[in-house]
Amino acid sequence: MSDPIQGYDVSVSVTGSNGPELVGEYKECKLNVKNETEEYLETNERIARLLDGDIKIDGELKRGWMNTNILTRIFGTSSMRRGEKVPASPRFTISFTVANTSKGQSGRLRVEQAVIPELSLSIKAGKSVVDKDLKFKAEGVSEA
After folding, report:
1. Pairwise CA distance, residues 93 & 141, whole Å
2. Which of 12, 40, 88, 142 has a CA between 20 and 30 Å from the CA of residue 110?
3. What is the pLDDT of residues 3-46, one digit of tens each?
4. For 85-103, what is each residue's pLDDT tens digit?
């Protein structure tokens, strides 16, 4: 029986149209792939049949705030105001790479065409790091 994959066995990278984007170590990453099943109750049945539904891919990246040009990197513009045209959001590829040859574990998950629809900053007085949470939605996921 092999050992479970641990956090230090996994690295996360984010790539945009201009190469590596939002670089740095992420302290926490979450990936959700959900089949939103639908229930279909047939006549004279009390247990519903489950039908496949829409597939939703989303997740979250967490780390300390590293760059002050965060609006440009995430939304493709340095300002957003009423009356101004906001460009289409940039698309990203998020890769989760597992590499621990001593345990015989290696592989990669790739989240494709990810959009970051929300930016959240947590700023507290004192020496603590400013937290930046990046929630994403994606159009694909694959084992690479």
Report:
1. 9
2. 88
3. 777 766 788 888 887 777 776 556 678 899 999 999 999 999 99
4. 988 888 999 888 888 777 7
Rounded CA separation 132/62 (Å) = 6
DSSP state of 123: -
- Provide the pLDDT for residue 58: 96
Evaluate whether 77 touches 86 at the Cβ level (below 8 Å): yes
In the structure encoding, which two tokens stand for residue 73, read together? 């990197």
Domain range 7-143, CATH class: mainly beta
Domain positions in the chain are: 7-143
| DSSP of 15-72 | EETTEE-S-S--SEEEEEEEEEEEEE--TT-SSPEEEEEEEEEEEEEEEE---S-HHH
Q: How many residues does the chain have?
A: 144
Considering only CA atoms, which of 35, 26, 88 is closest in space to residue 61? 26
Which residue type occupies 134? L
